[in-house]
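Q: Here's a chain of 253 amino acids. Please give me its 3D structure as C-alpha cells.
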Amino acid sequence: MFRHDQNIMNLDTYVHLSYFPTGVQVRPKGFGNLDGVRYVDNLEIISYYQVMIEELLKIQGMKEGVSLRAAPFDYRYSPPSGKTTRYFNRLTRLIEETYEINGKKRVAIISHSMGGLIFSTYLETRPLVWKRQFLHSWSNIGGVMGGALKLVKAFVSHGVIEEVPDVLMSRLVHRRVARTVMSNYWMLPRYPVWQEDEILLRTPTANYTVTTLGDMFRDMEYPEGESKWNAVKNGVYLGDPGRNGHSALIPLL
C-alpha cells in the first residue's frame, strides 16, 4: 500500500539536505547482489531487470553475486547530497571488489533511466587512471541525460504516476509527494538537450522553457520548488566518461 506520508521528504534549505519524516528509514536492498533489481514490487509481479538477469546468467562463467552484481540506490536523493556521496563511496568499493574477485577483469556497467545520470555524475568524481584500470565499458539504457518533460507534468498536475485512476490514488496526493522528491528537480529538462526557446509547458497566460522554470514554480504559487531546483540543477556532469560508452535512448516524455 502506498503511504504518501512516509514517502514525503523534507528539505533543510540552509544546507540543502533532504531527509525523511521522523521514524522513516529507506534502505535499498540487495547492494552487491541482485535482490533489489529483479522486480519493481515485493510480490515479484512487475519485472525490472529480471529478464536481463536471466539472459546474462546463461553466459558461461557468469555467477550471481560474483561476476553479476547490482548497486541499487534510493532514487529520491540526488547530487549534491551526503546520501549520494556515501553511495558513490560504496559504489567505488563494489567496483574494485568485483574487479579483484574476478581475476582483475575490468567491470562493465549497465545503467537505466536516472541511473545513467547518477553514473555519469559519479564518473566525474573518479580519476582517469582509476577508470582505465577498473572499468571496461558503460551501457546507458534510456538515461535521462537531458532531463525529462515528464517531470514538468509531475510538478504541475499529477505526480509521476499517470495511469493509476484517482479512485485508487489521488493524483493531487501523488503530486504533493513528487514535489518533495529532490531527484525530480534534478531530472528536469536542461540545456542544451532542450533548446532555450523550446516550449516545455504552455498555459493560457504564459509559456515556459528551460530558462523560465523558476517563473513556472512562482506562477504555480510553489516558490519552494524554485529553491529546490536551484539546489540541485548544477549537480549533474555530462562530459566525457573516460571509458567506452554505449547508449540506448528511450525518450521519457
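Q: Can you summarize the key feature?
A: The longest helix spans residues 82-101.
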